[in-house]
Every structure is written in C-alpha cells, then in structure tokens.
Amino acid sequence: MAGVGLGEFEIIRRYFARAGARAAAGTTILGIGDDAAVLRVPAGCDLVAAVDTIVEGRHFLRGSDPRSIGHRALAVNLSDVAAMGAIPAWATLALSLPAADPDWLEGFAGGFFDLAREHGVELVGGDTTAGPLTISVQILGVVPAGEALRRSGARPGDLIAVTGTLGDAGAGLEVARWAQRPRDAHALALLRRYEFPEPRVAFGRAARGIASAAMDVSDGLAGDLAKLAAASGVAAAVEVDDLPLSTALRATVSPAQALDQALGGGDDYELLLAVAPEAMPRLAAVAAESATPLTVIGEFRGGEGVQWTRGGRPYVPARGGFDHFGGASTQFTD
Ligand code: ADP
Ligand code: MG
After folding, report:
1. Is the pLDDT at 257 greater than 60, yes or no?
2. Residue with CA at minimum distance from ligand 1 atom 13
3. Which domains does the chain show, CATH number per domain?
4. How does residue 329 score in pLDDT terms, banded at 50, 70 and 90?
C-alpha cells in the first residue's frame, strides 16, 4: 500500500489479525493470512451474506471518534443479518485509509472487535489500501435452511411492529454537529444512539418462525416501511401518535422535530416486522426475553402504499426515506 507509513502488512498484523472472537455459528477452516478464507457452514443451514460501505463525509462526519466508526461499520451489517433472522458468524473488512495513524487504527479496531466479540463474529479476511477513508464490511451468517425472514412475507391483517425507539440516531447526528460536546444527559443519550447503535441480533433470531416479514430501519421508517409494503404487495396503515419515541428525544427537540426524526431520520437500526395478530403474543414474549421493547404501530391491509394518520387524520411525513442518489437531499458533505 503506497503512501502509508506503517505498511500494509504491519497494519494487518498489528490491528486486524489479532485474536478476536471465534465464529460462534460456524467453523473457520482458514482465516486471515492466506489468499482467501475457508469457512464451513453447519449442515442444514443457508449462508446469509450482506455488505455495507461507510464513507467519511457521507455516513459519518469527518473527525468522528474512530471507535464509533469501527463499531458502526460492523453494526450496520449485523443489523442486516438480524433482519433476516440469521446468526452472524464471519466478517471481512475492506479498508481504504488516507494515512496509517496508529491512534486512529487502535480506536477503530477496538470499536470493531468489541462489537464482534459481543456477537460471536470472527474477522477472517479483508483488504487494506491507501485512499479516501472508506470502510466496507461484508458479513456472513447462517440460518436454518429455508427459514430466513424476508421483506416479502407481510399479509393483509398482519400487525406492524417496531423494536426500540425511533428518531434517536437522527437527532444524535444533529447533536454530533454541535460545536461542543453536550453535557446534557438526554443529548448524550441521543449521540450514543447515533455513534454506537446496538443491532437487534438476539431478537431478530428469535423472531424467525414467528414474524411473517422483517427488515431493519436504517433510512427512516417512512421510506423503509414503504419498501417492506411494496416487497410484500400490501398496503400499510400507521398512526404516528403510536410511534415509540424516547424520553431523550422528547426532551431534546420539539414534538414536530421528534416525529420528523422518527419518520425521516436514519441510522436507528431497529427492526420493523409484520406479524399475524395470533402470533403477536409469542413475538412479545421473545422480545421480553431479549429485553427488546416492541411496539405495534399499525397494520397491513390489501392495496399498496402507506397511509399515515395522526390522531386519526391523514398525515404527510415531512421527508421520505434517505436515498443517496435522490437528488435534493444529500446526507451531509462537511
Ligand atoms: P492478497 O494480496 O492475496 O489479497 P493481502 O496481502 O491483501 O493478500 O492480505 C493478506 C491477508 O490479510 C489476507 O488473508 C487478507 O484477507 C488479510 N487482510 C488484509 N487486510 C485486512 C484487513 N483490513 N482486515 C482483515 N484482514 C485483512
Ligand atoms: Mg489484497
């Protein structure tokens, strides 16, 4: 890797070939060090694969805490695996770095491996190159054959449920842009939701076989629910007064801004699910087991599109979901 002081081999050896977690859900035949990793999926399982890239100035602010960047690079992928009802096992990491700064690498690897250990994810390979700060993580998980949760399974009459609270991370990004780090506990809680999202892996896995469809909420509920409804060929009806909003969010922004963040802010990494009414008690029970708040916000119906109401009257969300190539809205460019 030209132009980076520490040397590609040394970066890999020092920061990434360290003994992290072993894959909890599969067997690693060969990890970092050869031309490719060799992985064994347990018999009777399907392999689940996802990749997400985060780019400085696009998905995180310039100068962000490297620990948060390492955490988020993995968290966004774990959230996708959770939404499939799968168990994460392995990851690969493609890193493009403007400079080999040991402090930055230490923080980044610390954030990445702390979360990897928590979820039994083993880093089995990657690529390290000089260039604009860009991090691509590919995650591999396993799920009993044929049982992955999909976006396409919602049926008319299913309830719409969402985990946790919505809008915190969007507001947390606003807090991250403040000139000074906040001292207020609520603002700090929002910032933490943005910097260190906790993907719903245990709950997603437990929801398999109970929920009829699932996806993660990464781009704001308004856009993401529309995607799930379209994939399932159904309509959705949501009462926005029923959206779960945190105390921290309510205390920090106006009611209108809270609703706007819940519907149009991104980066929450909560799960959105469809569940038949008769299966709802079982879903609530597994949510309680993993200490996951779960709120019913509406129902799926025949037809298409999403009907939003506020206090029973038609409501139009201020923004749709985030789209990188959507023209008018760029997330941030500083
Ligand atoms: P090759 O040139 O054959 O692709 P590299 O020299 O790029 O091999 O990488 C050597 C080994 O280190 C490979 O096993 C690769 O998967 C691993 N590796 C490279 N960069 C990273 C990284 N950022 N994180 C984890 N593993 C990495
Ligand atoms: Mg290489």
Report:
1. yes
2. 33
3. 8-144 (3.30.1330.10), 151-314 (3.90.650.10)
4. very low
Quote the ligand 2 centre to 34 CA distance (angstroms).
10
User: How open is the CA angle 26-32-33, to the nearest 5 degrees?
Assistant: 140
Looking at the whole model, is its pTM more than 0.70?
yes
Contacts with 249 (C-beta within 8 Å, 6 or more apart), sequence order: 165, 167, 168, 171, 186, 190, 258, 261, 262
Sole residue written with tokens 């910032």: 191
Please tell me if the CB atom of residue 36 comes closer than 6 angstroms to any atom of ligand 1.
Answer: no
Convert the pLDDT of each residue in 160-180 to its tens digit. Answer: 999 999 999 999 999 999 988
Q: Is 91 touching ligand 1 by the criterion CB < 6 Å?
A: no
- Indicate if ligand 1 lies below 6 Å from the C-beta of 35: yes
What does R_g of the chain's alpha carbons equal in angstroms?
20
Spatial separation of the C-alpha atoms in residues 111 and 162, rounded to whole Å: 27
